[in-house]
Amino acid sequence: MMSLCPRNYSYCPSVIIWQSDEAVPRISVTDLEVSRHRISLFLSTHNAYELLPESGKIIALDVNLPVKQAFHILYEQGISVAPLWDFCKGQFVGVLSALDFILILKELGSHGSNLTEEELETHTIAAWKEGGKLHLTRTMDGNGASFSRRHLVHAGPNDCLKDVALKILQNKVATVPIIHFSSQDGSVPQLLHLASLSGILKCIYRYFRHSSSSLPILQQPICSIPCGTWVPKIGDSKPFAMLRPNASLSAALALLVQAGVSSIPIVDDNGSLLDIYSRSDITALAKDKVYAQIRLDEMSILEALRLGQDANSPHGVFNGQRCQMCLRSDPLHEVMKRLANPGVRRLIIVEAGSNRVEGIISLSDVFKFLLGYPEFVGHHFT
């Protein structure tokens, strides 16, 4: 750790850890309970059918596809997750996500790896899920269970929205396939939709937007509620890590996996937000087989971000278009409105004017707070 810098944050060459001593106001326990009850009632009386769009497409992958081909498809289609179909079993058996690609790249880059670049050409999704991933996550992750899920988490179209949201939160997944079984024995599954917290939040916002007074906490600034991940107070042991553009891609992937987060803010020397590196950005390495031509510890975050962005952009790499931001003074209803937009999974909380990062608030943070998820049961309010 180096010497303290302005604004009470300290840094090392690639990782910045913020510290803040600002007091956080409290909210009324009555307002909290009333708001949670009304939201819970709404979610319990509306079902997953309401999430289905009028038109659209869902991409599913055959488990016998080579993983290399699968990740090319994810990149070309601009998606970070796809359900897996097993023709032999006649059912959906799991999902392939950007996290799988991250784990595979870390395996390829490790000493003594059992997976070579040549094998990646023929290694199937099924082989990876059954063998490589299970072995790798057991050796890499102390908890193991968060990555070694062996069954497909799904929901039915008649399941209430609250149950769908809880499945996403409890299983720590980004999406839950909505599957309709047209036969009683479940032998004819139909994939209808990939449900996400964003879609559910959009339903909440649309329903309450003209009657926000019935949800008192919606008017509260986000700094007044226990929601999101904030810079720690001085003396707190939990760090808030960010990366600088010259940090290695290897360091970024290690943070994504070990910390169990989906994105990391990229900041300049003053701690001001430049960009964000997310799990889904890793699929850009599938372009022109870049993954086979680089070393993760030699490629910087800046170089990795350039792969997935238009090199001819007049704004350059750090154009700000990918960074969705908010202020600590923004009311919860405004944060919910922005998070309800397709493709937005988190907002970076920044200081007005300087854009210094103060925290992150994600879809899962908002839902855990609104539903009184166990992580918030122990919080005390005045």
| Radius of gyration from the alpha-carbon trace, in angstroms | 21 Å
Sketch the topology as an H/E string, one letter per element. EEHEHEEHHHHEEHEEHEEHEHEEHH
Count the beta strands.
14
- Give the biggest beta sheet: 4 strands, mixed
Roughly how much helix do the residues carry, as a percent range? 25-40%
Mean pLDDT, as a whole number? 80
Query: What is the beta-strand fraction?
Result: 15-25%
Number of helices: 12
The secondary-structure class comes to alpha+beta
Distance between the amino and carboxyl termini? 37 Å
Unreliable segments of 5+ consecutive residues: 1-22, 138-149, 311-317, 376-382
Assign an overall shape: flat
Question: Strand order, biggest sheet?
Answer: 8-14-13-12
Structural overview:
- This protein starts with 8 loop residues before the first strand and ends in a 5-residue tail after the last helix.
- The chain is built from 12 helices and 14 strands.
- By secondary structure, it is an alpha+beta fold.
- The chain is 32% helix and 17% strand.
- The protein has a 4-stranded mixed β-sheet with strand order 8-14-13-12.
